[in-house]
């Protein structure tokens, strides 16, 4: 005998919750990619062993560490954003998040500028 299942608040907004989960997973994939690029960049720098200046070694280490920290930060922000959106969807008070997108765009731009600065040293 099967128990009768009750409709939950989440079941009213299935499409929105599934889209929220896909967005969360996309942020996690992005964070993993940023971490991976940072490690790859640092490892290639030191594996090649063609360092001309100590400053290039320092920048390579900064890129690796910064990418790791930013990746973990993105995962934390994505988790917080996911939970807030989940609550707002159920309460029918959802509004798009502009500050999170701006913060992540600025952080990504900083990472790219650091990568570019490495090439000129």
TrEMBL record:
<feature type="transmembrane region" description="Helical">
    <location>
        <begin position="24"/>
        <end position="46"/>
    </location>
</feature>
<keyword id="KW-0812">Transmembrane</keyword>
<feature type="transmembrane region" description="Helical">
    <location>
        <begin position="58"/>
        <end position="80"/>
    </location>
</feature>
<keyword id="KW-0472">Membrane</keyword>
<dbReference type="InterPro" id="IPR052053">
    <property type="entry name" value="IM_YidH-like"/>
</dbReference>
<keyword id="KW-1003">Cell membrane</keyword>
<feature type="domain" description="DUF202">
    <location>
        <begin position="16"/>
        <end position="86"/>
    </location>
</feature>
<protein>
    <recommendedName>
        <fullName>DUF202 domain-containing protein</fullName>
    </recommendedName>
</protein>
<feature type="transmembrane region" description="Helical">
    <location>
        <begin position="100"/>
        <end position="118"/>
    </location>
</feature>
<dbReference type="InterPro" id="IPR003807">
    <property type="entry name" value="DUF202"/>
</dbReference>
<keyword id="KW-1133">Transmembrane helix</keyword>
<dbReference type="Pfam" id="PF02656">
    <property type="entry name" value="DUF202"/>
</dbReference>
<dbReference type="GO" id="GO:0005886">
    <property type="term" value="C:plasma membrane"/>
</dbReference>
